[in-house]
Structure formats: structure tokens, C-alpha cells
Design goal:
The chain is mainly α. It has a domain of about 50 residues. The chain is about 65% helix and about 0% strand. The protein is built from four helices and no strands. The longest helix is centred in the N-terminal third of the chain and has 21 residues. The chain is elongated, with a radius of gyration of 18 Å. This is Ribbon-helix-helix protein, CopG family. It comes from Roseospira marina.
Amino acid sequence: MTTKSNKPAVDRTTVALDRTLVRQADLLATVLGMSRADLISRGITIMSQGQPEHIKQTLKDMAAHTPATNTASAA
């Protein structure tokens, strides 16, 4: 006798999106010179502000205070 699980099946699109977001977070964290956990922590703080212009400015400020690791962006 098999019992059917009450858990909904995970949508493949959701899994693919989650993986894409993780890769993008890793890339952004690397560019900013921080860990993924630190980036997520700051992101939650920034997003809790709720104003798109404030979020954009905060991200620009974070990027401005990050030493350039890419020689193309430093030129």
C-alpha cells in the first residue's frame, strides 16, 4: 500500500530560478568582496527600507566603497 504525500511537488521552474538567484548572489558577492551570507544580510536590511531609489543608491554606495578587482572596471 502506498500513501500519497500531502507535500506539493516542487515546481522545476522554481528550482531553476532558485539556482539562478544563488549563482547571481555568488557573483555579486564576489564582485563586492563579501560572502554570500553577508550580501544576503545586507540585502534584507536594504530591502526592508522599501524605496527603490534608496535601494539603488545604497547599492551604488556599497559598490563605490569596494576596491576594484577587475582591471577593466578600474580603467
